[in-house]
Amino acid sequence: MATHSIISREDLICPQCTDIYCFPVLLLCGHNVCKLCLQKFWEWKGCQECPVCKVVSIPKRPPINLALKIAADKYHQEKAKMSVERCSLHEEKLTVYCQNDEKPICLLCQMSKLHKVHECCPLDEAAKQKKEDITGRLETLKKKLQTLDKTRESWERTRTFIQRQADENNRTIREEFQKLHKFLFEEENSRLQVLAQEVEVKVKVMSLKLDFMEKQIKSLSSVISNTEKRLEGDDLSFLLDYNDTKKKCFVFCCCFSFPFRLKCNFKEPEIIRDILINSATHLASLKFHVWRKMEHLVKYVPITLDPNTAQANLELSEELSCMQYSSQRALPDNPERCTGGVCVLGAGGFVSGKHSWTVDVSRGKDWYIGVVRESIQRKGAMSLKPSDGVWIIGGMIGDVLWAQTSPRTRLEWKQKAERITVELDYDKGKVAFINAADSKSIFTFKDKFTERIFPYFSVGIHEEGSGSFPLAICSQNITLTVSDK
C-alpha cells in the first residue's frame, strides 16, 4: 500500500524486524534500524555491528533519524485512518449510514441481507441529522450545567449564611446567659452579705458575754485562792481575818444561791437563746426562692417567630417576638422563606388543640395577622383567601379593618384595638380574633384544617423613611405555683 509522501513503504521497513520503523536510529554506515531491534541485536551479537553490512560502529549512542521517524508516524496515521474509513468486511469505503443499526456501512453492506431492508441514507445527511440531535442535547446539558452552577453558588451563600446565623445565635445565647450569670452572682453576694451580717452580730454578742464571763471567773478564782491560803495559815491569822473571809465567801454564795437577798455584781450564767446561725432562713428552698426572684428577668411569649421564613425586608428582635419593616437584607432563598409578601410565620406550627396569642398592633400600619396552612404559596404573589389556606384580618385604613374572606369582609369598630388576641381551635376549625382590651369578638373564620397550621404576621410594605410600624407578640405573665405531688 503506497503512501502519499515521497518515501515509499519499502523505505519505511526495518531490515531487522521487517516492519515499519519505530524510533529509527541512523548508524555510521548509513543504514537505519529500529532502536529496540538494534539493542536486542547488539546484546545477542555481543558487539556493536550493523545488522545489514556488519560494519562495527564506535561505542556511541546512534541518533534518531527524525525525518524517517516522521514519515513512519505519518504512514501509521494514514493506515489507521484508511482502516477506519473502510468496511471491515469488504474493504470498501464507508459511504452509507444505516439508521437501524446506527453505524456507517459500505455499498456492498447495504445490498447484503444484513442491511437490505434497513433504512439507509448518505453519510453527510446522517451526520447533519445526528449533529443537530447532539447539538440539542448539548444545549440541554449546558442549561443543566448553568442550573448546577447557580445552585452551587446559592448553596455556597447558604453555607456562609449558616455560619453567620450560628455566630449570631452564639452571641445572643452568651449575652442572655451573661444576664443570668450577673443576676445569680449579685443574688449570691446579697445572700452571703446577709449571712455575714448575722455572723458578725452573733459573734459580737458571744464575745461580749464571754468577756463578762472571764471577769467573773477571774474574780471568783481570786477569792477561792485567797480563802485557800488563809485556811492553810495559822489559827490566829485565820481568826483575825475570819470576818473578812466570811463576808467575801458569803457574797459569792448568795450571788449564786440567793441572788434576791444580796445585791452584788456577780450573776448566774444566763441561758442564751437564738444565738446560733438561722440556717433554715438562709438555706430553706434556696434554689426555689432564687428561681422565683428571676421572674422579672424572664419573658414568655407563646409564639416564636421563625427567621427562616421571614421576608428579606423584615427585621426580627433577638428573642424573635417582634418584627418591623427595614432595609432589604441578603438572605438565602430557602424553600421555607416567604418572598411574596413582607411577612413571617411562627415557628413549629400546630396540628391539634387550642392555642392563643396576643399581638400588639398599636404602632402598626397596613398589618395582617392570623394563621396559614403549611402548603401556602410562599414564592411570588401570595393569595390571601381561605380557599388557598389563609385565614387573616388586616389591611387597616383609618378605622376600617378587613377580614380576608372571598370576597373580603369589611369590619368596623368603634374603638381601635391596640392588642388583638388570635384564638385557634384546630380540632373545631375556628380562628377567632378578639379585642384584648374588652374581650369583644372582631371576626371568626370557620373551616376545616387538614395540615399543619402556622401563625402569620405581616407589617405591610412601607416607603423608605416612613417609619418602622412594628408588630410585637405580647409576653404573658409568669406565675409559679406550688402543689403537692
Q: What would you note in describing this structure?
A:
With 485 residues, this protein is an alpha+beta fold. Among the domains are: 10-85, 2-Layer Sandwich (Herpes Virus-1); 169-232 and 268-297, no CATH class; 307-473, Jelly Rolls (Sandwich). Helices cover 37% and strands 17% of the residues. The protein has eight helices and 18 strands. The chain has helices spanning 35-45, 66-85, 107-111, 123-232, 235-240, 242-257, 279-283, 286-293; strands at 24-26, 32-34, 96-98, 103-105, 120-122, 314-316, 322-325, 343-345, 354-360, 368-373, 390-397, 400-403, 409-412, 419-425, 430-435, 440-446, 453-458, 471-473. Strands 6-7-18-9-14-15-16 form a seven-stranded antiparallel sheet, with no helix packed on it. A six-stranded antiparallel sheet has the order 8-17-10-11-12-13, with no helix packed on it. Helix 4 runs antiparallel to helix 6 (242-257). The longest helix is centred in the middle third of the chain and has 110 residues, at 123-232. The two termini are 107 Å apart. Residues 1-5 and 256-264 have low confidence and may be disordered.
Q: Quote the average pLDDT.
A: 85
Order of helices and strands: EEHHEEHEHHHHHEEEEEEEEEEEEE
Q: What is the strand content?
A: 15-25%
Low-confidence stretches: 1-5, 256-264
Number of strands: 18
**Class by alpha and beta content:** alpha+beta
CATH topology name of the domain at 307-473, in short, is Jelly Rolls
Q: What is the 3D form?
A: elongated
Helix content: 25-40%
Gyration radius, to the nearest Å?
54 Å
The N- to C-terminal Cα distance equals 107 Å
Provide the spatial order of strands within the biggest beta sheet: 6-7-18-9-14-15-16
- Oligomer, anyone? single chain
Give the C-level CATH assignment of the domain at 307-473: Mainly Beta
- Total of helices: 8
CATH superfamily of the domain at 307-473: SPRY domain
- CATH second-level architecture of the domain at 307-473: Sandwich
Q: How would you characterize the largest beta sheet?
A: 7 strands, antiparallel
